[in-house]
Amino acid sequence: MEQTIYNQVVQANIELHSKLSEHYNTCEPHFRPENIAKVEANLKKVIDDTQATKMLDLGCGTGFMINIGKKYVKEIWGVDVTKAMTDRIDKSGDCEIVILNEDTAQAALPVNYFDVATAYSFLHHLYDIKPTLHNAYNSLKEGGKFYADLDPNYYFWEGVNKLDRNSSYDFIVKREIEAVTYKDEDIEKTFGVSKDIFNNAEFGKNIKGGFKEEDLISMLKAEGFKEVSLFYHWYIGQGALINDTQYSVEDRFKYADVMHQMLQKALPLSKNLFKYIGFVATK
């Protein structure tokens, strides 16, 4: 039974992302310049810390992380089960890029080979993340780092899913109700992908409800990672503030950062206000 569900999730991802591939780089908000800049700063720090020359990107999709990483390393391997996505990867430049169209849990990767592994907005697409964490750990050199980001924070998803769609809330709350609880309706209407396919393709988000900090730490430590640093980001209303035209662009980002810093100081009390969770784990 478990293997059947596992296979259903893999096939759902292939079906969904084959449909989305043509539009993925324009419809996903993580391709916005402000987010790319934030991710690039995080990745560059990990690369600098490890003096990396070889990088592994799990769930590489159309090459979001590859496009950033190839500016800083000499070799990148990307792994993704959907060929329609990887066919859109830009392989130009001096960096050697190797693409494997395989399940990240089962891909045959070289052992103790990579300095850095990444998984961006990917782990929640899996039925079970443990085999992929295991593969990432084995493929990293001693002291290598695994950077994962933009996965759903369980405590945010739990809170939003309890809200009534028809109640009178502020715009920023209503927006999250639609994006979190009813995204399957939008995908079905826009791309013709059934709700069941979409929800299975985002199993860790839409079925399991996201990731808990304590569970991620436990799983990463069980694989052998020595240090795990977790972080929360993209608090509710941050996007609305960044795009609020009553302020100058400079002020929007300044105010958004001030709010971010205050909510960070309020952790763990504020963790349910952050939409996403990420981590850097060191082998």
Could you name the key traits of this structure?
47% helix, 14 helices, 283 residues, alpha/beta
Over the alpha carbons, how many angstroms does the gyration radius reach?
19 Å
CATH topology: Rossmann fold
Shape: globular
Helical coverage, percent range: 40-55%
Side by side, the strands of the main sheet go 3-2-1-4-5-7-6
The span between the termini is 33 Å
Task: State which percent range the strand residues make up.
Answer: 15-25%
Average pLDDT rating: 95
Q: What is the assigned CATH homologous superfamily?
A: Vaccinia Virus protein VP39
- Helix/strand order, N-terminal first: HHHEHEHEEHEHHHHHHEHHE
Largest sheet composition = 7 strands, mixed
- Unreliably modeled segments: none
What does this structure look like?
By secondary structure, the protein is of the alpha/beta class. The protein has a single domain, classed as Rossmann fold. The chain is 47% helix and 19% strand. It contains 14 helices and seven strands. A seven-stranded mixed sheet has the order 3-2-1-4-5-7-6, with helices on both faces. Helix 4 links the parallel strand 1 and strand 2. Helix 1 packs across helix 10. The two termini are 33 Å apart. 40% of the residues are buried.
